[in-house]
Amino acid sequence: MSKRRTRSKTRSKRGSRKRHAIVKPFVLVIAEGDTERAYVKALASERYDGRIVLKTPGKSGNASLKNLVHQAKQYNCRSSVKTGPVSIWIICDYDENTIHKRELESWVRSRECHRSAVSYPCIEYWFVLHYTDKRKPNNARDARRHLEEQLSGQYQKGKLPTGLVEKTDAALQHARVHPDAMAEDKVWPTSRCSQLPRFIEFLDSLVDRS
pTM for this structure? Predict the structure, then answer.
């Protein structure tokens, strides 16, 4: 991780120091459910220490991928971080969303700043990868069961396991071995993996450049 940035200082004509506010990178995240929104919020505060702005518009509860794409179309990317989001991401699960995958693919390919991260079968598999790479869930129920095994049964959907974000680098190592996890041209995964590593690496690169 990059070191925390300090604010630059310049002297005014009277010799006093004038502070210039740092414009933080701004990314808009259209997230499927409360668990995804909680995860994005935790990343912003715990991994990036507030050095990046991650906004997750939308109401509580889950939304279909079709509705996520519709919502994403209401926003535009901007070339400058001063005027709007530099990128818009859709984060969702694979399960129950396959029927709408062509809509996601079309949206992603319509603009370079449109991106997505799909977890197959669900985001809980990405959480499992923070602890082990020895589990390959067949479905969402399996993924949640494997996660509960790692947490001794202490998992509640919509809330993050304590200390999860601290294990992000381990999860990245576990996930990178799968080609669908990192391939930028792969919108929809074809086998069990999570594409959240490319979301993390995108955010890391923004912070490193800021």
Answer: 0.86
Among 10-14, 57-61, 188-192, the range of highest mean pLDDT: 188-192
For the stretch 9-39, pLDDT in tens is 434 444 445 455 667 899 999 999 999 999 9
Q: How far is CA 102 from the centre of its chain?
A: 21
Q: Which two tokens stand for residue 24?
A: 């933080």
Q: Which spans in the chain are helix H?
A: 34-42, 65-72, 101-110, 123-128, 140-150, 168-175, 179-182, 196-209
Using alpha carbons only, give the angle 91, 146, 191 rounded to the nearest 5 degrees: 50
Cβ-proximal residues to 67 (8 Å cutoff; 6+ apart), any chain? none
Bridge partners of residue 19, in order along the sequence: 9
**Size of the chain, expressed as the number of residues it contains:** 210
Q: Which two tokens stand for residue 145?
A: 């069961």
